[in-house]
Amino acid sequence: MNKVVLxxxxxxxxxxxxxxxxxxxxxxxxxxxxLACRNTRRAQAARAALLGVRPSAQITLLHIDTSxxxxxxxxxxxLRLRFTRLDYVYLNAGIMPNPQFDFxxxxxxxxxxxxxxxxxxxxxxxTQKGGVTPDGLQEVFAxxxxxxxxxxxxxxxxxxxxxxxxxxxxxxxxxxxxSAFSLEDVQHRRGREPYSSSKYASDLLSLAxxxxxxxxxxxxTNTFTxxxxxxxxxxxxxxxxKPERLDPRAKYQSLTSVLGHNYTQPQRMDVDxxxxxxxxxxxxxxxxxxxxxxxxx
Length: 297
Ligand SMILES: NC(=O)c1ccc[n+]([C@@H]2O[C@H](COP(=O)([O-])OP(=O)(O)OC[C@H]3O[C@@H](n4cnc5c(N)ncnc54)[C@H](OP(=O)(O)O)[C@@H]3O)[C@@H](O)[C@H]2O)c1
Known about the structure:
By secondary structure, this protein is of the alpha/beta class. It has one domain (3-98, 136-296): NAD(P)-binding Rossmann-like Domain (Rossmann fold, 3-Layer(aba) Sandwich). The protein is 42% helix and 17% strand. The chain has helices at 13-24, 40-53, 69-82, 103-110, 115-121, 139-154, 194-212, 228-231, 233-240, 273-296, and strands at 3-8, 31-37, 58-63, 88-91, 100-101, 126-127, 167-171, 217-221, 250-256, 262-268. It has an 8-stranded mixed β-sheet with strand order 3-2-1-4-7-8-9-10, with helices on both faces. The chain has a two-stranded antiparallel sheet with strand order 5-6. Helix 6 runs parallel beside helix 7. It is globular and about 60 Å long. Residues 8-9, 11-15, 37-39, 42, 64-67, 92-96, 143, 171, 173, 222, 224-225, 228, 231 line the site of NADP nicotinamide-adenine-dinucleotide phosphate.
């Protein structure tokens, strides 16, 4: 039976490059690729391009807007109707609002011990303003993190079926920083680094997810790269690994050498179980609040 691979945000960038790499790989024979996208026209174009890579490929489309609760719930319902199990779920869709350069923080950073981190990750000097979704959630948090959390919860009946492992793989970022995240403000309503906060939240959540769903392996990737093909390196590499050999506390980074060779490198995540469990509880609480709102409306 074909392996079922779901990829959110599959119509461009890293998501599309991953799909191309999966279809080009000989090891990926017998795949059913489900492209989960918010824009039907772009999703159809991506499907056509992928069929150009492998005309016999089984590729289906699913509409999802990860920033919208009703869309996520509808997409999950549809997936439960279409499939009996999912083997890989790539939680990849994401947004980063246009960053603004903070000159004051830059000059301060030049004379601090943080200078290397500042230049390598943009910490403190690139700030963003996030919007609010019609559901009343912070947009970056909802799109990158909470929509995917809700999706995982709703897809539980399809995960780890018939004695098989399901892998949930988030596209993280080297920009995921603990300093941008606060348990008191998980949506990042008050901060100026919603992207970094949302990506750290996904890294952090991995520990609690592994504790609560101990039959499922969850791994995390990737870091900044110059092309989408390079950026998909770790996502593709993980696909080829035996899940039990992957370290759930590591983030697998896509890297490119000076000679242009792509490779994957694990990096220990800056996360702890207590904070992870506290975030998990916060998300469950938010999920309950949403459920109550839906019943009363
Ligand atoms: N590029 C990098 O260097 C880099 C580095 C680290 C991590 N990342 C992460 O990699 C992932 C992919 O980014 P990318 O660089 O490939 O950028 P991209 O080309 O802009 O791709 C983002 C994808 O996410 C989709 N998306 C955005 N908002 C969505 C929503 N509300 N619902 C459903 N889909 C949505 C986009 O769909 P539309 O076409 O409809 O907008 C698009 O398919 C993101 O999670 C990003 O944070 C990127």
